[in-house]
Design a protein that fits this description.
Strand order of the largest sheet: 1-2-3
Radius of gyration: 11 Å
Mean pLDDT: 88
Shape: globular
Low-confidence stretches: none
Strand content: 25-35%
Helix content: 25-40%
Number of helices: 2
Distance between the termini: 14 Å
Number of strands: 3
């Protein structure tokens, strides 16, 4: 599996929106996005760590 590139929280949100996710709510620096039954939390930081991004 290739290494994941370091991306920002805003870039991650943009990619998830293209996949059909919508922003449900935000608390502090974390966004919660949902698509149907599945959801994810995105930290709005300058750079998301690779382990967080892989999860």
């Amino acid at each position: 599996m290739p290494k994941l590139p370091p991306i920002s929280g805003a870039e991650c949100v943009k990619a998830l929106k293209r996949l059909g996710f919508a922003v449900t709510r935000q608390r502090g620096s974390h966004l919660v996005m949902r698509r149907g039954e599945s959801g994810c939390t995105v930290p709005m930081h300058k750079e998301i760590k690779v382990g967080t991004l892989a999860g």
